[in-house]
Design a protein that fits this description.
It comes from Altererythrobacter xiamenensis. With 204 residues, the chain is an alpha+beta fold. The protein is built from seven helices and five strands, in the order ααββαβαβαβαα. The N and C termini lie far apart (46 Å). It binds zinc ion (ZN).
């Protein structure tokens, strides 16, 4: 069995990025350190694959997530209710172990006079998630990006995730979700708004 690294032998497909020799060497060192032989057949191309995979996991470094909020609609037609996107799946990597963080996010805002296409909220999330992260900072970065760029009445971000560094090593506790939240504006200051948004998200 072999696994797909997302690149196919089709001239129209994206070119595989070159993985410099020193990066491959680093991965060989890690394989050796883990107890295996980087020269055995199954591992020969692994350093290249891992190098490319990490470029993808950390694609967020190539972008400023705020760019997704630059195209706003200012005519909200008197809409003054909460906009909520929930159960957005994402993957990130923890900066302490470079282990996967897998989870879902709920992102809500109460617009003042700017709204964005709903998929843009997910793009902002992925822009910050595709970096080395801690869940607390990821949650805060998504919230402030929306807060600063849409200038809404309120922003609420709740992230629930499992950490590979907890499920696969250390205390080895699968099935434990870590929940973080960041509330701004009316969702922070006004108890009724906070209750409303959290219950819409399913945390009421
Ligand atoms: Zn970790």
């Amino acid at each position: 069995m072999s696994c797909d690294d997302g690149y196919v032998d089709d001239p129209g497909a994206p070119q595989k990025p070159e993985v410099p020799e020193h990066v491959q060497d680093a991965i060989r060192t890690l394989i050796e350190w883990s107890g295996d032989d980087p020269t055995r057949e199954g591992l020969i191309d692994t350093p290249k694959r891992v190098g490319r995979a990490w470029l993808e996991y950390c694609q967020g470094y190539q972008e400023d997530p705020a760019i997704h909020l630059s195209r706003v609609f200012e005519e909200v037609g008197g809409y003054d209710e909460i906009v909520l996107l929930k159960d957005i799946p994402f993957q990130s990597h923890c900066e302490h172990h470079m282990a996967p963080i897998t989870g879902k996010a709920a992102i809500a805002y109460l617009p003042k006079n700017k709204v964005v296409g709903i998929s843009k909220l997910a793009r902002v999330l992925h822009g910050f998630a595709r970096r080395l992260q801690i869940q607390e900072r990821l949650t805060a970065e998504v919230a402030s990006c929306i807060w600063d760029n849409l200038e809404p009445h309120g922003v609420a971000v709740v992230i629930e995730a499992q950490h590979g560094c907890m499920t696969g090593r250390g205390v080895r506790t699968p099935g434990v979700n870590m929940v973080t939240s960041r509330l701004c504006g009316c969702f922070l200051d006004d108890q009724r708004s906070r209750k409303e948004v959290l219950s819409l998200m399913g945390y009421g």
